[in-house]
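2024-03-11 09:14:02 DEBUG pipeline.ingest accepted 1 chain
2024-03-11 09:14:02 DEBUG pipeline.ingest length=124
2024-03-11 09:14:03 DEBUG pipeline.predict start
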Amino acid sequence: HVQLVESGGGLVQPGESLRLSCVASGITFSRHDMSWVRQAPGKEREGVSWIAGSSRSAHADAVKGRFAISRDDAKNTLTLQMANLRPEDSAMYYCVAGGLGTCLFRRPTDFTYWGQGTQVTVSP
């Protein structure tokens, strides 16, 4: 069965960095578009970063210039490097996967597979 296992979340101060990782199993990783989606308490899920099977990537305006998404198809691993973190970045971060082309509309609901999430808290 499909598993997406995230790691790397934690509690940091504003301005600090974190690196999230997601290891996938049960799918042909290279043939899936991947994304990081976050959800804060009381808020809707929002797409943060997307990376297609071609490795073409995009980021939401709220994180552009601070976050970088990457993938290693040989290791079935998705990574999100987060810098200059802000309190408003605090949320549960989910690794999600969908078939090729899923990234096109950047809608979290289009993605088929979801990890269990890793918590990121940014607080003084």
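2024-03-11 09:14:41 DEBUG pipeline.report The chain has a mean pLDDT of 97.
2024-03-11 09:14:41 DEBUG pipeline.predict end
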